[in-house]
C-alpha cells in the first residue's frame, strides 16, 4: 500500500488547516455562503436533507486496518455509529456537525486519509479495480497509476474550477471491473505490438441524466506520457466545456457536441503544444510509487488446500460462502474474498463501528493488513490463504459479514434516495430491501446466478441504474413514486446502457416485476448463460413481452379488487 | 478597484477605456478591449497599452497582439469560472513577458492558483476587497507550501523535489 512521505503528510495537514481557516472566514463573513459552498464541497462536505454529509476519499478503494479503526472511532464519536460505503469507493458519514469537521479531518490525516476533492467541480477521487494486483488477467497493477493521478490532481492550480465534476478510473485488467467506459476519463493499461506498456484513453463516458459510453481518444499512449496527455484533455475541457447549463457541462456533452473526431483533434493539437518532459512524472518517481504496491511476501503454497476442502465438505455454509464470494488469486494457495455489505434487509453499503473493528482485525490477521472497497458497495480481502478460510469465515460470521451473496440478485447497489438525499424523487434503499427479501432464499439466488441490480432514487443516477443488468430508476409521477425498469445495462468492457421495458410501476409492484423478469431469463437461458449474457443474445424483446404481460396481469388483479 | 500582487496591494498604472475615442483621450498607459487593439496601435504607435478579454477567448485571437502589449487582463465573470486559468497558461506559453492580470470577483482562496497559472496580479471590485482585504489574500497564498504539479508555480514540484532529494542522497 502507498504510504505518505513527508511531502504528502505536510500537504494533507496544510489542507486541513486551510479548510479550518475557510470555515472561520465563512463564520466571520469574509466568505459569502455562495463562495464557501464550492470550498466545502471540494473538501467533501455536503449539505443534505437532514444534516451535513462528509465524504472521505478512499483512493482507488484501498485501506488498511488502522484506517478502518479510525473510521470506526469517528463513526462512534462524531456520527451515529456507522459509515456508508459508496459506489465511488468512498466512505460517507451522514450526520457530522460542521464544528467537528476540522477535527475529523485532523484524525483522518493521522491515518493518511483526507476528503480532498471528493466533491465539487474538480477531478474527483480516482477509482480502480478492486482486484488490482490480484487478478490473473492483469497487464499491470493499476494502483501506481491511480496514486500518481491522485497526487497530480490534488489542488491542481488550473483544474479546480472546471465546468463540472470530473471522474477518472483506471484498470489494468482485460475484464473491466472499474467501469472505465462510463467515466469522464477511463484508462486501460495495455501492451502494444512491441510489448511496451501504455494506456488506452477513453473520454466522455458518464451516467447521470444523459448517460453515455466513452470514446477512445487514444489507442495507445506511452506510459511515461500520462500526465502531459491528461493535462491536454483537461485544458480542452476547462476551456471549452459548457458553463451555461449545469446539465450539459460534463465532458461527455463536449465530446458529443464537438464530435469524437474533432474532439480528438483538439486534444492532440493541445498535446502537441505541450512540453511533455516538463510535465510528466520522472521515471524514478513512477518507480518509487510502484514499489509501494509490490506484492506482499506470500508463502509458497500448493494451489489446493486440504484444510479448506475438508472444512467445506462438512460445513455447507462455508462451502456456499467460498463458492460465491471468492475470486481467483494469481498466487497459488490464496484467494481474494468479497464481503458483501448486503445482509438481507440491511442498508446497502452501511457498516457499523463494531463491524469496522472486527473487520479491521480480520484484515490485519488474514490479509496482509489490507482490504479494498468496491464500487458495488462491498469490501474485498485481497490476499487470504485458502488454509485460513474456515477461520476467516467464522470471524466474518460473528461480525455479521458473511453474506454469501456477492454478485447475486440480492447484492444490490442502491443510492441513498429519499431516506437521505435532497434531490431524490423516490425511495431507493427500501426498494433494495424489498427485493432482497423476495429473493432471500439461498437456493433460489444460486439458481438465478450473477445478476447485478442497480437502483437510483432520481435521474442523477448515483446508483448507476443505467449499467445494471436490471436497472431501477425511481421517479415521481402525479405525487406517487414511480419506478422505471431497464435491462441489459453493463459497466464492463461490454459497456451498454439498459433499455426500458415499459411504463413505470408502483413501489409495491417492483419485487414482483423483478420476479417476472427473472422468469423470462430462466425461460430464455441457454446452457450456463448468465442473465446479462442472455440479454445480450436475445435483446430486450422477450423481456419486454414478459414485462407487458406482468403489467396486464396487475391491471386485471387491481380491477378484480375494486 | 484593488490590485493585488504577490507582495501586496499596488497602484494601477493603467486607465480603462472602452471605446477608441476614450482610449485616445487618456494620458499614460491605457487598458482597452481586445477588439479595438489594432485600431489603437495604429493611432498611437509605440504607446504602452494593455488589452482586456474574457476567459473564453481563443488563444489565436490574442496571439497576434502579444508582442505589442504590456498587459493582458483576463476577465473572470465569476470566481468559479476556471477558463481564465487555462487561458493564462496558454498566453504564458506563447512567451508573453508582460503583466498578466486576473480581473473580476475572485476570492482569496484562488490567489495561489492564479499565481501558479502565470498571473502577475488580481484586480478586484471594491465590494470583494472590502470583504476579503489584502491580508487575507497574502495569507491564503501561503497556506499550502508545496504543489504536486510540475510546470506550475515558480518552485519545483513535489515530484521534482523528491527526485532531487534522491539524486542528492
Ligand atoms: C445523498 C446525497 C447525494 C447527492 C445530493 C448526490 C447528488 C448527485 C448529483 C446531482 C449527481 C449528478 C451529477 C451530474 O452528472 O450532473 C450525482 C452523480 C453521482 N453520484 Fe451522487 N449524490 C448523493 C449521494 C451519492 C451516493 C451515496 C453515491 C454512492 C452510492 C453517489 C454516487 C454518485 C455517482 C457515482 C454519480 C455519478 C454518475 C455519473 O457518472 O455521472 N452519490 N450525485
Ligand atoms: S440518484 Fe438522485 S436520489 Fe440517489 S443519491 Fe443521487 S441525487 Fe440522490
UniProtKB/TrEMBL annotation, chain A:
Keyword list, A-Z: 4Fe-4S, Heme, Iron, Iron-sulfur, Metal-binding, Oxidoreductase
Coiled-coil spans in chain: none
Domain Nitrite/Sulfite reductase ferredoxin-like, residue spans: 52-110, 343-399
InterPro entries per the UniProt record, alphabetical: NIR_SIR_4Fe-4S, NiRdtase/SiRdtase_haem-b_fer, Nit/Sulf_reduc_fer-like_dom_sf, NO2/SO3_Rdtase_4Fe4S_dom, NO2/SO3_Rdtase_4Fe4S_sf
Signal peptide boundaries: none
UniProt keyword Calcium, yes or no: no
4Fe-4S listed as a keyword: yes
Nitrite/sulphite reductase 4Fe-4S domain mapped to chain residues: 119-272, 410-545
Protein name: Nitrite/sulfite reductase
Upper classification of the organism: Bacteria, Pseudomonadati, Pseudomonadota, Alphaproteobacteria, Hyphomicrobiales
Automatic annotation (TrEMBL), chain B:
Source domain of life: Bacteria
Classification via Pfam families: DUF934
Protein name: DUF934 domain-containing protein
UniProt-listed InterPro entries: UCP030820 (IPR008318)
Amino acid at each position: 500500500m502507498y504510504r505518505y512521505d513527508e511531502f504528502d503528510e505536510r500537504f494533507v495537514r496544510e489542507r486541513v488547516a486551510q479548510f479550518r481557516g475557510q470555515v472561520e472566514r465563512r463564520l466571520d463573513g469574509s466568505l459569502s455562503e455562495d463562495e464557501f459552498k464550492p470550498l466545502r464541497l471540494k473538501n467533501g462536505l455536503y449539505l443534505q436533507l437532514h444534516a451535513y454529509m462528509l465524504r472521505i476519499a478512499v483512493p482507488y478503494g484501498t485501506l488498511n486496518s488502522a484506517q478502518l479503526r479510525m473510521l470506526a472511532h469517528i463513526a462512534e464519536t462524531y456520527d451515529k455509529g456507522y459509515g456508508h460505503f459508496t459506489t465511488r469507493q468512498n466512505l460517507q458519514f451522514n450526520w457530522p456537525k460542521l464544528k467537528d469537521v476540522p477535527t475529523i479531518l485532523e484524525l483522518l490525516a493521522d491515518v493518511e486519509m483526507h476528503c480532498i476533492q471528493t466533491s465539487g467541480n474538480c477531478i474527483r477521487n480516482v477509482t480502480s479495480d478492486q482486484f488490482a494486483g490480484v487478478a490473473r488477467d492483469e497487464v499491470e497493477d493499476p494502483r501506481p497509476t491511480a496514486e500518481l493521478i491522485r497526487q497530480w490532481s490534488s489542488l491542481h492550480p488550473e483544474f479546480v474550477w472546471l465546468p463540472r465534476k470530473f471522474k477518472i478510473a483506471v484498470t489494468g485488467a482485460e475484464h473491466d471491473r472499474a467501469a472505465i467506459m462510463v467515466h469522464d476519463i477511463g484508462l486501460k493499461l495495455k501492451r502494444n505490438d512491441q510489448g511496451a506498456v501504455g494506456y488506452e484513453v477513453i473520454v466522455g463516458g458518464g451516467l447521470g441524466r444523459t448517460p453515455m459510453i466513452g470514446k477512445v481518444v487514444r489507442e495507445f499512449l506511452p506510459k511515461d506520457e500520462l500526465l502531459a496527455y491528461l493535462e491536454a484533455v483537461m485544458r480542452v475541457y476547462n476551456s471549452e466545456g459548457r458553463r451555461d447549463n449545469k446539465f450539459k457541462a460534463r465532458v461527455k456533452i463536449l465530446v458529443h457536441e464537438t464530435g469524437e473526431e474533432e474532439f480528438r483533434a483538439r486534444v492532440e493539437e493541445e498535446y502537441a503544444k505541450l512540453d511533455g518532459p516538463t510535465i510528466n512524472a520522472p521515471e524514478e518517481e513512477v518507480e518509487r510509487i510502484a514499489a509501494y504496491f509490490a506484492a506482499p511476501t506470500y508463502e509458497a503454497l500448493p494451489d489446493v488446500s486440504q484444510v479448506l476442502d475438508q472444512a467445506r465438505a462438512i460445513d455447507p455454509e462455508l462451502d456456499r460462502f467460498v463458492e460465491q464470494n471468492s475470486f481467483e488469486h494469481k498466487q497459488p494457495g490464496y484467494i481474494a474474498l468479497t464481503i458483501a455489505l448486503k445482509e438481507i434487509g440491511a442498508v446497502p453499503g452501511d457498516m457499523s463501528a463494531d463491524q469496522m473493528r472486527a473487520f479491521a482485525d480480520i484484515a490485519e490477521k488474514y490479509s496482509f493488513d489490507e482490504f479494498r472497497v468496491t464500487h458495488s458497495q462491498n469490501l474485498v480481502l485481497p490476499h487470504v490463504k485458502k488454509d485460513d478460510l474456515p477461520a476467516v469465515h467464522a470471524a466474518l460470521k460473528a461480525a455479521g459479514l458473511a453474506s454469501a451473496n456477492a454478485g447475486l440478485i440480492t447484492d444490490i447497489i442502491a443510492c441513498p434516495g429519499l431516506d437521505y438525499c435532497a434531490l431524490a424523487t423516490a425511495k431507493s434503499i427500501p426498494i433494495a430491501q424489498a427485493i432482497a427479501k423476495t429473493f432471500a432464499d439461498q437456493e433460489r439466488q444460486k439458481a438465478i446466478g450473477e445478476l447485478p441490480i442497480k437502483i437510483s432514487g432520481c435521474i442523477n443516477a448515483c446508483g448507476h441504474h443505467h449499467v445494471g443488468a436490471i436497472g431501477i430508476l425511481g421517479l415521481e409521477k402525479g405525487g406517487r413514486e414511480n419506478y422505471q425498469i431497464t435491462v441489459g445495462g453493463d459497466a464492463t468492457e461490454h459497456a451498454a446502457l439498459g433499455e426500458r421495458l415499459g411504463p413505470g410501476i408502483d413501489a409495491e409492484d417492483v419485487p414482483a416485476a423483478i420476479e417476472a423478469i427473472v422468469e423470462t431469463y430462466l425461460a430464455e437461458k441457454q446452457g450456463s448463460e448468465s442473465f446479462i449474457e442472455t440479454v445480450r443474445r436475445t435483446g430486450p424483446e422477450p423481456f419486454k413481452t414478459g414485462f407487458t404481460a406482468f403489467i396486464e396481469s396487475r391491471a386485471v388483479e387491481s380491477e378484480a379488487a375494486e | 478597484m484593488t490590485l493585488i500582487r504577490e507582495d501586496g496591494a499596488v497602484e494601477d498604472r493603467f486607465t480603462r477605456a472602452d471605446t477608441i475615442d476614450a482610449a485616445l483621450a487618456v494620458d499614460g498607459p491605457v487598458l482597452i478591449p481586445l477588439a479595438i487593439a489594432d485600431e489603437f496601435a495604429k493611432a498611437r504607435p509605440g504607446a504602452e497599452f494593455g488589452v482586456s478579454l474574457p476567459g473564453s477567448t481563443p488563444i489565436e485571437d490574442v496571439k497576434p497582439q502579444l508582442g505589442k502589449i504590456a498587459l493582458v487582463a483576463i476577465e473572470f465573470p465569476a470566481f468559479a469560472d476556471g477558463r481564465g486559468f487555462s487561458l493564462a497558461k496558454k498566453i504564458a506559453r506563447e512567451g508573453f513577458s508582460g503583466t498578466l492580470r486576473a480581473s473580476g470577483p475572485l476570492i482569496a482562496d484562488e490567489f495561489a492558483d492564479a499565481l501558479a497559472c502565470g498571473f502577475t496580479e488580481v484586480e478586484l471590485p471594491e465590494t470583494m476587497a472590502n470583504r476579503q482585504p489584502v491580508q487575507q489574500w497574502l495569507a491564503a497564498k501561503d497556506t499550502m507550501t508545496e504543489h504536486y504539479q510540475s510546470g506550475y508555480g515558480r518552485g519545483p514540484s513535489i515530484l521534482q523535489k523528491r527526485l532531487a532529494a534522491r539524486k542528492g542522497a
